[in-house]
């Protein structure tokens, strides 16, 4: 049914549990896995003339975020490899994570977006906003939302 599934992660324990569920789902479908971490865009210092000595350059920031993304997606890659699934990972940069997820799903020809929800409802969902809700409202692709009933470790 699904050939290529995009699994998103932000590195949190909730998204790591969701990613594991995504790999299990991909195994059931016999689908390829594409793991995605969306890092924020590089932010230049407010006063460009006076750059603090500890402030990373844009190149350093990009390399650091790519390393972080590989770390976050490592468990997804190991799980997919253990299941014998074709897999790849990608770090993308955007301050609008939801739109980048939708864009990557289109560009990489994914059949399904698999992502998590923290399970917030009511005011919490309204006030905090949700990448998942934004993805749902901006894509025409199917989105499977994996909802954790309670935080991992509780």
Automatic annotation (TrEMBL):
Domain UspA intervals: 1-145
Coiled-coil region: none
Name this protein carries in UniProt: Universal stress protein
Species whose genome carries this gene: Massilia cellulosiltytica
Protein family per UniProt: Belongs to the universal stress protein A family.
PANTHER family found in the cross-reference section: STRESS RESPONSE PROTEIN NHAX, UNIVERSAL STRESS PROTEIN UP12
